[in-house]
Amino acid sequence: MCLPNDLELAKAAKTLVEEMVNVKFGEEVLIYADTESDWKVVEETAKAVYNSGGKVTVIRYPAPRGVAEAADPDIPKALAAAMLNCDILIEFSSKYLLYSSAWVRTMQTNKVRYLCLSGMTGDMMIRCVGKVHIPTLIEFQEKLAELTRNAKRMRVTSSAGMDVEFENNPERPVFVEGIVKDKPGEYMLIGQVDWAPVEESINGKIVFDGSLWPPEEVGILKNPVCLDVEKGVVKRIYGGREAKLLEKWIKSFEDPAMYNVAHISYGCNPGAKLSGYIVEDERVWGSVEWGLGHQAESFKGRAGPAKSHTDGICLNTSIWMDGQQISDEGIFVHHELAALARKLGKL
Q: What's the CA gap between 223 and 240, in Å, rounded?
């Protein structure tokens, strides 16, 4: 018997494959997941790829002990080889392989389109893909990206005490996530706009009050984690238990680059909620996410590689671009964004 949520998940997987991934007839699609992944999501996506005419392969493997480069010792050789021999990669692994050595080698071939859906659950896919009006959300993201590209100086604050200022480089890309284009590259779940500011211009106090992952022991935060940032480098980490865990985790790599601020992202998926899964948390409406550590080459920044990467979520943020307020504690007040937010059910 097919339950209602099974039908909704099948529809969401179809939307993902046909409207977002744009799988073409005969394309080789590799879907991989670890033992902590939601297998039902993997199955429905594989069916959708097959029904669209793609040649689908699914690989499941034991969850690594870490993420990014820290996952290298646990990545099966067969998976690493398969990653090099496909047109599209769809990652559902809970412990993401993004920024791992196998992933870097794959992306250096400049022939693979990679979609990161790390930790995606069935409920999350239904809310963040199946029930979202994709064209309106893309229009919202493109407008937000346009405003960001045109802004020279920005300030981001939050009710939790964050206050950070920085400058943008107009020659660096501002990514609108959600649609996998025909050209090779890395793509993320819809509901996020991300870029790398001029690193040495990033100064102030970042306060994570939503979630933080990795380290694995954290997830949804009970206590805020505060970071003092000078010229794009974290100089001090403080707060409660979670702050100590983060500091210990970063120190364990013995890599100064782990203290670099790698990028910032807006969260703007109307279906996202704070769940403890970073792929969803960083898309919570009105939030911003700061990434620390490894900086992907696609950002065209100066921070560069590091041994791992972590993301922290700041809720209910206020954003200013060249003195103009764009959002107020998580509510987009810019007139064009507000109109689109209303269509998405967020005003």
A: 6
Separation CA 90–CA 124 (nearest Å):
16
Going along the chain from its start, the domains and CATH numbers come out as 4-129 (3.40.1830.10), 133-176+190-343 (no CATH)
Give the integer Cα–Cα distance in Å for 311 and 208.
9
pTM of the predicted protein model: 0.91
| Burial class for 149, CB neighbours closer than 10 Å (0-12, 13-18, 19+) | middle
Query: Is residue 272 helix, strand or coil?
Result: coil
Residues 54, 21: contact at Cβ < 8 Å? no
Pairing relationship of beta strands 225-230 and 175-176 according to DSSP bridges: unpaired
Q: pLDDT by residue for the chain (347 residues), tens digit each? A: 444 588 999 999 999 999 999 999 999 999 999 999 999 999 999 999 999 999 999 999 999 988 878 889 999 999 999 999 999 999 999 999 998 999 999 999 999 999 999 999 999 999 999 999 999 999 999 999 999 999 999 999 999 999 999 999 999 999 999 899 999 999 999 999 999 999 999 999 999 999 999 998 999 999 999 999 999 999 999 999 999 999 999 999 999 999 999 999 999 999 999 999 999 999 999 999 999 999 999 999 999 999 999 999 999 999 999 999 999 999 999 999 999 999 999 97
